[in-house]
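Appendix C reproduces, verbatim, an entry submitted by the partner laboratory led by Prof. M.T., so that reviewers can inspect both the input and the predicted structure.
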Amino acid sequence: MTGFLAYDNIVIQTITINLKKSMREVINISLPSPMAKTVKTAVKTGSYSSTSEFFRELLRDWQKGKLLNELNESRMEIASGKGKVLRSLKDLR
């Protein structure tokens, strides 16, 4: 629920989020005008349903890239002989 309070020419925006239901958090970011225009254009042309969806997909792609880099580093360690073959859970100790 969003509301506005006005007092002596001061406007305060209030945002209420029921965390038990949605588990969402509002994060505000500041972008240079060209970047903001890029996001707005992507939403306006239908590439994304909302600005939030644009950034959610961007974050998901970043997370996938980070995981892929970690996997590739592990593969290189294994290929260079730094890996250890585990035959049982006891080998983890």
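Confidence is low (pLDDT under 50) at residues 3-8. Additional entries are available on request from the coordinating office.
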